[in-house]
Protein backbone atom coordinates (compact mmCIF):
# COMPACT_ATOMS: atom_id res chain seq x y z
CA UNK A 1 0.00 0.00 0.00
CA UNK A 2 1.39 3.41 -0.94
CA UNK A 3 2.04 6.24 1.48
CA UNK A 4 -0.85 8.10 -0.18
CA UNK A 5 -3.28 5.41 0.97
CA UNK A 6 -2.48 6.15 4.60
CA UNK A 7 -3.02 9.89 4.21
CA UNK A 8 -5.78 11.01 6.53
CA UNK A 9 -9.09 12.24 5.17
CA UNK A 10 -9.91 15.71 6.41
CA UNK A 11 -12.94 15.88 8.70
CA UNK A 12 -13.36 19.55 9.37
CA UNK A 13 -15.08 20.54 12.62
CA UNK A 14 -15.98 23.87 11.03
CA UNK A 15 -19.64 24.70 10.37
CA UNK A 16 -20.81 23.34 7.02
CA UNK A 17 -22.75 25.42 4.49
CA UNK A 18 -26.45 24.69 4.16
CA UNK A 19 -26.25 24.79 0.40
CA UNK A 20 -26.57 28.29 -1.00
CA UNK A 21 -28.74 29.49 1.88
CA UNK A 22 -25.97 31.54 3.47
CA UNK A 23 -26.55 29.54 6.65
CA UNK A 24 -23.86 27.34 8.18
CA UNK A 25 -24.52 24.55 10.64
CA UNK A 26 -22.54 22.34 12.99
CA UNK A 27 -21.32 19.29 11.01
CA UNK A 28 -23.74 16.99 12.85
CA UNK A 29 -27.49 17.64 13.08
CA UNK A 30 -30.07 16.13 15.43
CA UNK A 31 -33.32 14.50 14.34
CA UNK A 32 -36.72 14.26 16.01
CA UNK A 33 -38.21 11.23 14.30
CA UNK A 34 -38.16 9.44 17.66
CA UNK A 35 -38.90 12.53 19.78
CA UNK A 36 -42.66 12.29 20.37
CA UNK A 37 -44.06 10.45 23.37
CA UNK A 38 -41.63 11.95 25.85
CA UNK A 39 -42.80 14.21 28.67
CA UNK A 40 -41.76 17.85 28.44
CA UNK A 41 -38.95 17.58 30.96
CA UNK A 42 -37.36 14.62 29.18
CA UNK A 43 -37.80 16.30 25.82
CA UNK A 44 -36.14 19.48 27.07
CA UNK A 45 -33.18 17.47 28.38
CA UNK A 46 -32.62 16.12 24.86
CA UNK A 47 -32.81 19.58 23.30
CA UNK A 48 -30.38 20.95 25.88
CA UNK A 49 -27.98 18.05 25.25
CA UNK A 50 -28.03 18.78 21.52
CA UNK A 51 -27.46 22.51 22.02
CA UNK A 52 -24.68 21.88 24.53
CA UNK A 53 -23.04 19.50 22.04
CA UNK A 54 -22.90 22.44 19.64
CA UNK A 55 -25.62 21.13 17.31
CA UNK A 56 -27.37 23.91 15.41
CA UNK A 57 -29.84 22.15 13.09
CA UNK A 58 -32.88 20.24 14.34
CA UNK A 59 -34.71 18.12 11.78
CA UNK A 60 -38.35 17.22 12.30
CA UNK A 61 -41.41 16.50 10.12
CA UNK A 62 -45.16 16.79 10.42
CA UNK A 63 -45.50 13.01 10.32
CA UNK A 64 -42.98 12.32 13.10
CA UNK A 65 -44.65 10.68 16.05
CA UNK A 66 -47.63 9.49 14.02
CA UNK A 67 -48.48 5.96 15.07
CA UNK A 68 -50.42 3.84 17.48
CA UNK A 69 -49.96 6.04 20.51
CA UNK A 70 -49.63 9.54 19.09
CA UNK A 71 -51.29 11.61 16.37
CA UNK A 72 -49.96 13.15 13.18
CA UNK A 73 -47.94 16.19 14.19
CA UNK A 74 -46.95 14.86 17.63
CA UNK A 75 -43.20 15.57 17.36
CA UNK A 76 -43.79 19.11 16.07
CA UNK A 77 -46.41 19.73 18.76
CA UNK A 78 -44.01 18.63 21.52
CA UNK A 79 -41.36 21.00 20.16
CA UNK A 80 -44.02 23.73 20.06
CA UNK A 81 -44.78 23.21 23.76
CA UNK A 82 -41.09 23.58 24.60
CA UNK A 83 -40.75 26.70 22.47
CA UNK A 84 -43.77 28.22 24.17
CA UNK A 85 -42.22 27.51 27.57
CA UNK A 86 -38.82 28.90 26.53
CA UNK A 87 -39.16 31.16 23.46
CA UNK A 88 -35.44 32.04 23.51
CA UNK A 89 -34.65 28.49 22.36
CA UNK A 90 -36.01 29.32 18.92
CA UNK A 91 -33.01 31.46 17.99
CA UNK A 92 -30.49 28.77 18.89
CA UNK A 93 -31.04 26.38 16.00
CA UNK A 94 -31.98 26.14 12.37
CA UNK A 95 -35.51 24.72 12.37
CA UNK A 96 -35.99 22.18 9.60
CA UNK A 97 -39.25 20.35 9.03
CA UNK A 98 -40.96 18.46 6.23
CA UNK A 99 -44.35 17.98 4.66
CA UNK A 100 -45.79 15.95 1.83
CA UNK A 101 -46.56 12.58 3.45
CA UNK A 102 -50.27 12.03 3.96
CA UNK A 103 -50.58 8.70 5.81
CA UNK A 104 -52.46 6.10 3.81
CA UNK A 105 -52.26 8.03 0.51
CA UNK A 106 -49.18 8.15 0.87
CA UNK A 107 -47.82 11.33 -0.80
CA UNK A 108 -49.27 14.72 -1.66
CA UNK A 109 -47.26 17.75 -2.76
CA UNK A 110 -50.14 19.51 -4.49
CA UNK A 111 -50.14 23.25 -3.91
CA UNK A 112 -53.22 23.20 -1.67
CA UNK A 113 -51.92 20.29 0.40
CA UNK A 114 -48.45 21.79 0.91
CA UNK A 115 -49.86 25.14 1.94
CA UNK A 116 -52.17 23.55 4.49
CA UNK A 117 -49.39 21.24 5.74
CA UNK A 118 -46.89 24.06 6.15
CA UNK A 119 -49.37 26.30 7.93
CA UNK A 120 -50.33 23.43 10.25
CA UNK A 121 -46.63 22.86 11.04
CA UNK A 122 -46.23 26.54 11.93
CA UNK A 123 -49.24 26.38 14.22
CA UNK A 124 -48.12 23.18 15.96
CA UNK A 125 -44.59 24.44 16.53
CA UNK A 126 -45.91 27.86 17.59
CA UNK A 127 -43.51 29.67 15.29
CA UNK A 128 -44.10 32.11 12.45
CA UNK A 129 -41.17 30.96 10.34
CA UNK A 130 -39.59 27.65 9.32
CA UNK A 131 -35.93 28.01 8.34
CA UNK A 132 -35.83 24.96 6.05
CA UNK A 133 -38.99 23.41 4.59
CA UNK A 134 -38.38 20.05 2.91
CA UNK A 135 -40.59 17.96 0.67
CA UNK A 136 -40.46 14.67 2.54
CA UNK A 137 -40.86 12.31 -0.40
CA UNK A 138 -41.52 12.94 -4.08
CA UNK A 139 -45.21 13.01 -5.04
CA UNK A 140 -45.44 11.25 -8.39
CA UNK A 141 -48.79 12.89 -9.15
CA UNK A 142 -47.90 16.57 -8.83
CA UNK A 143 -46.14 18.39 -11.63
CA UNK A 144 -42.92 19.93 -10.30
CA UNK A 145 -44.12 23.32 -11.53
CA UNK A 146 -47.03 23.13 -9.08
CA UNK A 147 -44.74 22.10 -6.20
CA UNK A 148 -42.44 24.99 -7.09
CA UNK A 149 -45.32 27.46 -7.18
CA UNK A 150 -46.46 26.41 -3.71
CA UNK A 151 -42.95 26.65 -2.26
CA UNK A 152 -42.32 30.02 -3.89
CA UNK A 153 -45.55 31.41 -2.44
CA UNK A 154 -44.78 30.17 1.08
CA UNK A 155 -41.31 31.64 0.80
CA UNK A 156 -42.57 34.98 -0.51
CA UNK A 157 -44.97 35.17 2.44
CA UNK A 158 -42.05 34.63 4.85
CA UNK A 159 -43.46 31.38 6.20
CA UNK A 160 -40.39 29.45 5.10
CA UNK A 161 -36.83 30.63 4.61
CA UNK A 162 -35.31 27.96 2.40
CA UNK A 163 -36.42 24.89 0.54
CA UNK A 164 -35.06 21.34 0.56
CA UNK A 165 -36.07 17.92 -0.67
CA UNK A 166 -35.75 14.45 0.78
CA UNK A 167 -35.60 11.04 -0.88
CA UNK A 168 -35.71 12.65 -4.32
CA UNK A 169 -34.00 11.06 -7.29
CA UNK A 170 -31.47 13.40 -8.89
CA UNK A 171 -33.83 13.73 -11.87
CA UNK A 172 -36.72 14.70 -9.60
CA UNK A 173 -34.57 17.34 -7.91
CA UNK A 174 -33.54 18.73 -11.30
CA UNK A 175 -37.17 18.85 -12.46
CA UNK A 176 -38.23 20.81 -9.37
CA UNK A 177 -35.25 23.16 -9.55
CA UNK A 178 -36.09 23.95 -13.19
CA UNK A 179 -39.32 25.61 -12.01
CA UNK A 180 -37.85 27.56 -9.08
CA UNK A 181 -36.06 30.88 -9.33
CA UNK A 182 -34.19 30.27 -6.05
CA UNK A 183 -31.98 27.30 -5.19
CA UNK A 184 -32.99 24.10 -3.47
CA UNK A 185 -30.51 24.17 -0.59
CA UNK A 186 -30.66 20.63 0.79
CA UNK A 187 -31.25 17.04 -0.23
CA UNK A 188 -31.92 14.46 2.50
CA UNK A 189 -31.18 10.87 1.49
CA UNK A 190 -30.64 7.85 3.68
CA UNK A 191 -26.86 7.45 3.84
CA UNK A 192 -24.56 5.58 6.18
CA UNK A 193 -21.78 3.01 6.22
CA UNK A 194 -24.64 0.49 5.90
CA UNK A 195 -26.72 2.24 3.20
CA UNK A 196 -24.33 3.47 0.55
CA UNK A 197 -26.57 3.85 -2.53
CA UNK A 198 -26.24 7.68 -2.74
CA UNK A 199 -22.56 7.17 -3.60
CA UNK A 200 -23.55 5.40 -6.79
CA UNK A 201 -27.00 6.66 -7.86
CA UNK A 202 -25.99 10.23 -8.65
CA UNK A 203 -27.43 11.79 -5.47
CA UNK A 204 -24.14 12.95 -3.96
CA UNK A 205 -22.68 13.88 -7.36
CA UNK A 206 -25.62 16.13 -8.10
CA UNK A 207 -25.33 17.82 -4.71
CA UNK A 208 -21.63 18.50 -5.29
CA UNK A 209 -22.35 19.72 -8.82
CA UNK A 210 -25.00 22.17 -7.64
CA UNK A 211 -23.69 23.15 -4.21
CA UNK A 212 -26.59 21.51 -2.39
CA UNK A 213 -26.07 20.40 1.22
CA UNK A 214 -26.63 16.74 2.00
CA UNK A 215 -28.40 15.91 5.25
CA UNK A 216 -27.93 12.16 5.79
CA UNK A 217 -30.79 10.39 7.55
CA UNK A 218 -30.28 7.30 9.72
CA UNK A 219 -26.48 7.67 9.73
CA UNK A 220 -26.26 4.75 12.17
CA UNK A 221 -28.69 2.76 10.02
CA UNK A 222 -31.51 3.42 12.46
CA UNK A 223 -29.49 1.90 15.31
CA UNK A 224 -28.30 -1.24 13.47
CA UNK A 225 -24.73 0.04 13.66
CA UNK A 226 -25.09 0.32 17.44
CA UNK A 227 -26.06 -3.33 17.91
CA UNK A 228 -23.91 -5.67 19.95
CA UNK A 229 -22.26 -8.29 17.71
CA UNK A 230 -24.52 -11.04 19.12
CA UNK A 231 -27.68 -9.00 18.35
CA UNK A 232 -26.39 -8.28 14.86
CA UNK A 233 -26.15 -12.02 14.29
CA UNK A 234 -29.94 -12.33 14.36
CA UNK A 235 -30.71 -9.18 12.33
CA UNK A 236 -31.73 -9.30 8.65
CA UNK A 237 -28.68 -9.51 6.37
CA UNK A 238 -26.75 -10.56 9.47
CA UNK A 239 -23.53 -11.71 7.79
CA UNK A 240 -23.02 -8.38 6.04
CA UNK A 241 -23.98 -6.45 9.20
CA UNK A 242 -21.69 -8.56 11.37
CA UNK A 243 -18.74 -7.98 9.06
CA UNK A 244 -19.37 -4.24 8.95
CA UNK A 245 -19.68 -4.00 12.73
CA UNK A 246 -16.43 -5.96 13.16
CA UNK A 247 -14.66 -3.60 10.75
CA UNK A 248 -16.00 -0.51 12.54
CA UNK A 249 -15.03 -2.02 15.91
CA UNK A 250 -11.48 -2.67 14.77
CA UNK A 251 -11.09 0.93 13.62
CA UNK A 252 -12.74 2.21 16.81
CA UNK A 253 -10.29 0.25 18.92
CA UNK A 254 -7.35 1.55 16.91
CA UNK A 255 -8.59 5.13 17.27
CA UNK A 256 -9.71 4.83 20.88
CA UNK A 257 -13.24 6.02 20.04
CA UNK A 258 -16.70 4.47 19.93
CA UNK A 259 -17.96 2.45 17.00
CA UNK A 260 -20.67 5.06 16.33
CA UNK A 261 -17.98 7.73 16.03
CA UNK A 262 -16.27 5.74 13.27
CA UNK A 263 -19.60 5.17 11.50
CA UNK A 264 -20.38 8.90 11.58
CA UNK A 265 -16.83 9.72 10.48
CA UNK A 266 -17.39 7.60 7.36
CA UNK A 267 -20.28 9.94 6.45
CA UNK A 268 -18.49 13.13 7.51
CA UNK A 269 -15.35 12.36 5.50
CA UNK A 270 -17.11 12.34 2.13
CA UNK A 271 -16.18 15.37 -0.03
CA UNK A 272 -19.84 16.46 -0.31
CA UNK A 273 -19.42 17.76 3.28
CA UNK A 274 -22.41 15.74 4.39
CA UNK A 275 -24.19 16.60 7.63
CA UNK A 276 -25.39 13.38 9.32
CA UNK A 277 -28.64 13.72 11.27
CA UNK A 278 -28.23 11.59 14.37
CA UNK A 279 -31.45 10.20 15.78
CA UNK A 280 -30.55 9.13 19.30
CA UNK A 281 -32.85 10.40 22.06
CA UNK A 282 -30.34 9.52 24.78
CA UNK A 283 -28.74 12.72 26.11
CA UNK A 284 -25.38 11.02 26.84
CA UNK A 285 -25.21 9.75 23.26
CA UNK A 286 -26.18 13.15 21.87
CA UNK A 287 -23.42 14.69 24.00
CA UNK A 288 -20.83 12.31 22.53
CA UNK A 289 -21.70 12.98 18.87
CA UNK A 290 -18.78 15.36 18.33
CA UNK A 291 -16.33 12.52 18.98
CA UNK A 292 -16.80 11.63 15.31
CA UNK A 293 -15.05 14.85 14.28
CA UNK A 294 -11.82 13.65 15.88
CA UNK A 295 -11.67 10.26 14.14
CA UNK A 296 -8.68 9.80 11.87
CA UNK A 297 -9.62 7.72 8.84
CA UNK A 298 -7.25 7.14 5.97
CA UNK A 299 -8.31 6.75 2.35
CA UNK A 300 -7.65 3.01 2.71
CA UNK A 301 -9.80 2.82 5.90
CA UNK A 302 -12.70 4.57 4.19
CA UNK A 303 -12.64 2.23 1.19
CA UNK A 304 -12.25 -0.73 3.54
CA UNK A 305 -15.48 0.25 5.34
CA UNK A 306 -17.26 0.71 2.00
CA UNK A 307 -16.12 -2.61 0.57
CA UNK A 308 -17.01 -4.43 3.79
CA UNK A 309 -20.47 -2.88 3.66
CA UNK A 310 -20.91 -3.81 0.00
CA UNK A 311 -19.62 -7.32 0.60
CA UNK A 312 -17.45 -7.10 -2.53
CA UNK A 313 -14.03 -5.75 -3.34
CA UNK A 314 -14.03 -2.88 -5.82
CA UNK A 315 -12.15 -3.68 -9.03
N1 LIG B 1 -36.21 12.06 5.37
C1 LIG B 1 -36.58 10.86 5.73
O1 LIG B 1 -37.30 10.15 5.02
C2 LIG B 1 -36.10 10.37 7.06
C3 LIG B 1 -36.32 9.03 7.45
C4 LIG B 1 -35.83 8.62 8.68
C5 LIG B 1 -35.15 9.51 9.50
N2 LIG B 1 -34.98 10.81 9.09
C6 LIG B 1 -34.24 11.79 9.92
O2 LIG B 1 -33.02 11.22 10.34
C7 LIG B 1 -32.96 11.29 11.76
C8 LIG B 1 -32.13 10.16 12.27
O3 LIG B 1 -32.71 8.90 11.93
P1 LIG B 1 -32.50 7.68 12.91
O4 LIG B 1 -33.16 7.96 14.21
O5 LIG B 1 -32.89 6.45 12.21
O6 LIG B 1 -30.90 7.79 13.12
P2 LIG B 1 -29.75 6.85 13.63
O7 LIG B 1 -28.81 7.73 14.36
O8 LIG B 1 -29.25 6.02 12.49
O9 LIG B 1 -30.45 5.84 14.64
C9 LIG B 1 -30.92 6.27 15.89
C10 LIG B 1 -31.37 5.06 16.66
O10 LIG B 1 -30.22 4.30 16.97
C11 LIG B 1 -30.15 4.09 18.34
N3 LIG B 1 -28.75 4.20 18.71
C12 LIG B 1 -27.92 5.22 18.58
N4 LIG B 1 -26.70 4.98 19.07
C13 LIG B 1 -26.77 3.74 19.52
C14 LIG B 1 -25.85 2.92 20.14
N5 LIG B 1 -24.62 3.32 20.42
N6 LIG B 1 -26.24 1.69 20.49
C15 LIG B 1 -27.48 1.28 20.22
N7 LIG B 1 -28.41 2.04 19.63
C16 LIG B 1 -28.07 3.27 19.28
C17 LIG B 1 -30.94 5.18 19.00
O11 LIG B 1 -31.43 4.73 20.24
P3 LIG B 1 -31.61 5.73 21.49
O12 LIG B 1 -32.53 6.81 21.06
O13 LIG B 1 -32.21 4.83 22.51
O14 LIG B 1 -30.25 6.24 21.89
C18 LIG B 1 -32.05 5.39 17.98
O15 LIG B 1 -33.11 4.48 18.18
C19 LIG B 1 -34.42 11.28 12.20
O16 LIG B 1 -34.61 11.78 13.50
C20 LIG B 1 -35.01 12.18 11.17
O17 LIG B 1 -34.75 13.53 11.49
C21 LIG B 1 -35.44 11.23 7.90
Description:
An eight-stranded parallel β-barrel has the order 3-4-5-6-7-8-9-10, surrounded by four helices. The chain is 37% helix and 13% strand. The protein is α/β, with parallel strands linked by helices. It has a single domain (14-233, 259-292), classed as TIM Barrel, CATH 3.20.20.100. The structure holds NADP nicotinamide-adenine-dinucleotide phosphate (NAP). NADP nicotinamide-adenine-dinucleotide phosphate (NAP) binds at residues 31-34, 59, 136, 166-167, 188, 217-223, 226, 260, 277-282, 285.
> How far apart are the first and last residues' alpha carbons, in Å?
16 Å
Overall number of structural domains? 1
Can you write the helix and strand succession as a string?
Answer: EEEHEHEHEHEHEHEHHHEHH
Low-pLDDT regions: none
Determine the fraction of residues in helical runs and give it as a percent range: 25-40%
Secondary structure category: alpha/beta
